[in-house]
Each structure stands twice: as structure tokens, then as C-alpha cells.
Specification:
The protein is α+β, with helices and mostly antiparallel strands. The chain has 18 helices and 16 strands. The strands form five sheets. A five-stranded mixed beta sheet has the order 10-16-15-12-13, with no helix packed on it. A four-stranded antiparallel beta sheet has the order 8-9-11-14, with no helix packed on it. Helix 1 packs antiparallel against helix 15 and helix 14 runs antiparallel to helix 15. The relative contact order is 0.15.
């Protein structure tokens, strides 16, 4: 399966136009619970509407432009800290953790009650466009992205949307795309359950309002509880199309911050019941209430990828400003915020050969893209390129930090107490080294920063032998343990550094480990 340069550009443009249109449509109804009957924009859209769903992707685009394809959660976290000004919810929690020295994926988990909310799956279009036809690679990037400020269902939702969108460049059948997305999820999770609930409702002939209610009962969301039942807002007063709402006592109260599963379900309600009609579909997503700008925006992006910009009705394209207005960023010349959706798409297209070079063949008219052999999840798709298999990473607890270097990956497992240390309580940290080369290596590790009175077992220097990487998932790894008992605690945090050097070669890497004395 192949697509040419012109088709790819049209699909990228469709993606971000659809995102912008859907996000603008749903903006007035965000955070409210209700069932509406809107069929077009309800507010003045002559000026651009700021949207964090697009904002955050501008940061990731800048990261790719400056760092190339070998970005990971640490690089993304650095760009997040530099450019994301928002301090609310999961955005602020992840940023606060990282500023303290708590690195991904623990930064997305620790003291973050919104870690399973919607901030990650709403920003996956950048990965889908840069990994068009390669859902496995899109899933990897979506994981690195999401774990900066999310965990659990917040990550699963991002993986689902990224893989569906990446596959949509080559596959248009809705059922096949949903099946592809599900193949990348754990066997049991809230996002999978939400998808299956909606699919069952559609198959059984339930109307969309019934499907919405069954979804919110099966996977309650706290997002619509933020603003409560819709009564109207200054920009859009209550009217016949969006009447004031009464409380539905059948919908149970949700755990605060548990929002991603229901939101993904709402995207599917709009997609399934809209039956291929762009306007009807995004309106149905918004008509379900909750995180309306995100659900309508993401669905608009999916449908824009499938059909391309040319197929989006002029009514919608002409009715929405193409200008980009940011609301969560601290712009500067390095971030270089594009002024329009068209300018954004041009920059995204330029980075495709950088990120997906193995599936890109240049032609006299641009380039041609080849899809992966299998769009569904296939663990063999992660070899021999030595990409990390994100499904294996999902099985690890968020207490395992990973550092990627040219010749090896270092994993640091903090244990069940995470980054916390206590007076007189033994702390054990497992450090795993993974060889990325077709060369055997002896790695030397030197540990500094641990106070002498803590009595680090086995000294502060280790040699670790690594077999060469040859496709095995186990034999190219080895590990060692840091075991000590903190005493005479005086500081609020302690910063350990593991210096990694490779015998016979000049490279040196540094792995920081932050430990918190107190409540975390």
C-alpha cells in the first residue's frame, strides 16, 4: 500500500483542519454535562479560538525540528518545561514533578490526580502524521509523549487515537480502524471497555443518546462534573439547540480525573452514528457533552485524515478561522509558532522523511509513502530497528524511568515507594542496562551523591557485561542493584548520579536519580 506526496499533504491538511473545526465547534460546551442538538457553530468564530489541543502539538513539532527522530520522554519533558506555560491539572502536575527532578514516566504519575484525564490523547495528531501508515511507531511516540504528564488510561487513550489516526492514512473502514486501535491496547482497560460498550450499542440498534448514557454509566467521567449541567454561557446562551439541562440521576459520580475512557467512547459515538458525514459526526460528538472541544476536534482530525482536506465541506472550512491563537504556550523564536493551520501542515510534512525515513521514497514530485506490512499490533514490528516495544513498557510500573543513549538504554526502577525515602528504611533501586548495538560491551557504572553514612552495599563502582544486540529481548540486558538505608536525613531531596562509561570507548553518560525526603 502506497500514497503519493499530494495525497499525503491533503490528508495532513485535512487532519489539522478537522481538528481546528471540531475544537472550535465544541469549545463553548467544554466541561459541561448535557445533551444538545447543535448542527453548526453556536458562537462567533470570525476570530481564531485558542485551543490547547493544537497548542501542545506545536511544542512537539519544534522538538522534532530541532532534535530529529530520536526524541523520547526526557527530551519532550524538557521542551514541555521550557514552552508550556499552563500550570493547571495534569499539565501542571507533570511540569511540577519534572522541575523537582522526577522524570517520566513517574512525572506523569506522582501526585497527579488527573493522570487518567484527557490531556494526552488530544495531542496525538502530530505523531500520526509523522508516522503515517506505521501505527507501531506512532504508539511509541504517543507513549513517550503521554507519560510526561499522564499514566494509566491517560496513556492508553493516547495510544488508541495515535494508532487509529496513523492507520487512517491508508485504511478508511471504521470497523477495521477501531480493530487496529484496540490491538494496541491492554486486554483489560477502561478505554477498551468504553469502545466495546459503544460498539455493542451501535450493533444492537440503540440510538446515540442511549449509547451516551450507557457509556457514562459503564465508564463515568468527571469532566462534565466540572461545570455541571449546562445552563448556557455568555458566548452561547441556552437555546432550543442547546437547552438548559437537568441532572441525570442514573449517571454515577466519577472518580475525579478519570475522564479518558468515556471521552474516547464519545469520539466513537460521533464516528459511528455520523455514518461518514463530517458535519453530522463532529456535531454528535459535541452533542454528547463532557470534553466537547477535544472529542469533536479529535473526531474531526480522524475524518480529515481519511477523506483529506478537499473533502471537508466548504461550509465548515469557510465558517472557521484558519489562524492559530495559542493559549498555553510561552512562544519564542525557537518554538516559532505558525500563524495558520496551513503553515503548521507545511512544517509537519517536511518532517515526515526525518521521522519515517524507512517508509519514505523520494520522487520527482515529492515523496511516496509505504505503509507498514501489518497495521495491527505486531511485536515483530519493533525489530530490527531496536525501537522499544511500548506494550512491554506499559507492563512496567510508573516507577521505572528510562534513559536512552546512542549505545544503550538505562532503566531505573525505584520500587514500590517510588521516589520517597524514609529514615531507617532500606531503599533498593534496580538499574537495568539494555545493549542497543551489535557489539558486546562492558559498561562501567560509578555512583555518586549517596551519603557515606547510608552505606551503599557493594561499593560505588560496578562493571556490567552486555551481550551484543541480535534480536533477543532478554540476552542483551543485564542489571545491578543499589541498596542502602537512609539515615540522618537533613535535606528535602537527594540527587544521585550514575555515571556510565563503556570500556574501550570514550563515551560517557549520566543518569540522575532524585529521591524525596517527605510526602510525595
Amino acid at each position: 500500500m502506497k500514497i503519493n506526496y499530494k495525497t499525503y499533504c491533503d490528508k495532513v491538511k485535512g487532519c489539522f483542519l478537522g481538528k481546528n473545526i471540531g475544537g472550535t465547534l465544541g469549545a463553548p460546551f467544554e466541561c459541561f454535562r448535557g445533551v444538545y442538538d447543535i448542527d453548526f457553530f453556536m458562537q462567533d468564530v470570525s476570530s481564531p479560538v485558542p485551543n490547547d489541543d493544537v497548542d501542545l502539538q506545536l511544542v512537539w513539532l519544534s522538538a522534532v525540528e530541532h532534535e530529529g527522530k530520536n526524541i523520547d520522554s526526557h527530551i519532550l519533558a524538557q521542551y514541555w518545561e521550557n514552552y508550556v506555560s499552563a500550570e493547571i491539572s495534569e499539565y501542571g502536575a507533570g511540569k511540577n514533578n519534572y522541575s523537582m527532578g522526577i522524570v517520566p514516566p513517574l512525572s506523569g504519575y506522582l501526585r497527579n490526580e488527573n493522570r487518567e484525564s484527557n490531556g494526552a490523547w488530544i495531542r496525538t495528531e502530530i505523531w500520526a502524521c509523522l508516522c503515517a501508515g506505521n501505527p507501531a511507531l506512532a504508539a511509541n511516540y504517543a507513549y513517550y509523549d503521554a507519560c510526561v504528564d499522564h499514566s494509566g488510561e491517560g496513556i492508553y487513550a493516547a495510544i488508541f487515537t495515535a494508532t487509529v489516526q496513523a492507520a487512517a492514512f491508508f485504511e478508511s473502514d471504521i470497523n477495521k480502524l477501531i480493530e487496529i486501535g484496540l490491538s494496541y491496547l491492554p486486554e483489560k482497560c477502561g478505554v477498551r471497555n468504553a469502545v466495546e460498550v459503544v460498539l455493542k450499542c451501535f450493533k444492537n440498534g440503540d440510538d446515540w443518546k442511549t449509547a451516551r448514557k450507557k457509556l457514562l454509566i459503564a465508564e463515568p467521567s468527571s469532566f462534565g462534573e466540572i461545570g455541571g449541567e449546562w445552563k448556557g454561557v455568555p458566548s452561547v446562551p441556552a437555546s432550543a439547540k442547546c437547552p438548559a439541562q437537568n441532572k441525570d440521576k442514573d449517571i454515577p459520580k466519577a472518580v475525579h480525573g478519570y475522564d479518558a475512557p468515556a471521552s474516547i467512547g464519545i469520539v466513537l459515538i460521533g464516528w459511528l452514528y455520523g455514518k461518514g458525514d463530517f458535519g453530522k459526526s463532529i456535531c454528535l460528538a459535541a452533542n454528547c457533552g463532557e470534553d466537547t472541544d477535544c472529542t469533536a476536534g479529535t473526531l474531526g482530525a480522524i475524518m480529515g485524515i481519511i477523506s483529506g482536506a478537499e473533502s471537508i465541506p466548504d461550509k465548515w472550512k469557510n465558517g472557521c478561522s484558519e489562524k492559530i491563537a495559542v493559549c498555553t504556550l510561552r512562544p519564542d523564536l525557537l518554538l516559532n509558532v505558525p500563524e495558520t493551520v496551513s503553515a503548521l501542515c507545511e512544517r509537519v510534512v517536511k518532517q515526515f522523511p526525518v521521522v519515517s525515513s524507512e517508509r519514505c521514497a523520494f520522487t520527482e514530485n515529492g515523496f511516496e509513502i509505504t505503509a507498514a506490512n501489518c497495521l495491527k499490533y505486531d511485536e515483530n514490528a519493533f525489530y530490527p530497528y531496536q525501537q522499544e516495544n511500548f506494550k512491554e513498557l506499559l507492563k512496567e510500573s510508573p516507577c521505572t524511568a528510562r534513559y536512552h543513549f546512542p549505545s544503550l538504554t538505562v532503566k531505573v526502577n525505584f520500587g514500590e515507594s517510588l521516589a520517597k525515602i524514609e529514615e531507617g528504611t532500606e531503599k533498593r533501586i534496580i538499574v537495568t542496562l539494555c545493549n542497543k548495538l551489535y557489539l558486546s560491551q562492558y559498561v562501567n557504572a560509578e555512583i555518586s551523591g549517596i551519603p557515606e553514612e547510608w552505606k551503599l552495599a557493594n561499593g560505588d563502582k560496578r562493571a556490567v557485561g552486555l551481550e551484543h544486540w541480535h534480536g533477543s529481548k532478554v540476552s542483551h540486558t543485564n542489571k545491578f542493584e543499589l541498596k542502602f538505608t537512609p539515615t540522618a536525613l537533613k535535606n528535602y531531596k537527594y540527587e544521585i548520579v550514575i555515571k556510565i562509561s563503556v570500556n574501550g570507548r570514550g563515551e560517557q553518560y549520566f543518569v540522575p536519580v532524585t529521591l524525596i525526603n517527605g510526602a510525595c
